[in-house]
Amino acid sequence: MICDDSRIYLPAYLDDELDVSDSLRVQQHLANCQDCQQTQEHQLVLRSALRDPDLRGYPSADFSKRVEAAVRRAAKEEARARHSSRFEFLQFEPARWMAAAAVLLLVTTVGTFLVTSSLRTSNQQLIASAVLAGHIRSLQPNHLIDVPSSDRHTVKPWFQGRLDFSPPVPDLSELGWTLVGGRLDYVDGRAVAVIVYQRRMHNINVFLWPNHDATEDVIWQEEAQGYQILHWNGAEMTYWVVSDLNHAELLEFARALRGH
User: What's the pTM?
Assistant: First the structure.
């Protein structure tokens, strides 16, 4: 483990949120790295300071009552607005109903997907940090790919015996996405496949492993350190895509990947 990885994992390590293997990796690194030991000490001092009871404020009874009254008023106003909106919706003229139906039909036909601007859980944030660190690490010389090939029939068999699953390796060259190879990485306590594509001079790392959660139509997105991160759960695999490619083109790539 390098210092960048250690500092990403350190908050989760201090909160006892890591699995045994990642905790041991952090411990081993801390035992041999004075810089990261100092970072750990600073975080522990900060946590201790934040637990100081003098930092806590307690509202007066009068203030609490005023807040409760304001919340009740807001709830009533929201209920009235919702009722009014529902009534107005029911008053649509036939032409507006037809327009709405046409839009719905168009959306259904195109098969669009939703994009939300942030990841939901602390575990997703931790995984996002891990795949980002893996992407940045891969940009160092001789770290991007273990099996260099633009032939999916070379890349896909290479993973046999190295993983407990067979990752899909679609050929997207006709759509402008060049397959350059694959490699192994380690994310969320397990070995994962990374399929690497390129557009122009931009590397695109696709981290994937078996999905044990429900399939989602939503693509979650995050931006960190100048890189775009996309995530979704497919029917069989969970996908994390990282690149410095612009957001619009990376979403285009995600559509192409989801379509295969």
Answer: 0.56
> Residue 199, Cα to own-chain centre: how many angstroms?
21
Cα–Cα distance, 128 to 38 (Å, whole number): 25
For residue 51, give Cα distances in angstroms to 60, 69, 78.
21, 31, 37
Secondary structure element (H or E) that encloses residue 233, with its range: strand 227-233
**Token pair of 83 as six digits:** 């009722």
Neighbouring C-beta atoms of residue 150, cutoff 10 Å = 14
- Residues across the chain: 260
Mean pLDDT of 108-121: 49
* Best CA proximity match to 19, nearest among 34, 9, 4: 9
Cα-to-chain-centroid distance, residue 160:
27
Rounded (to 5) percent helix, strand, coil in the chain: 50, 20, 30
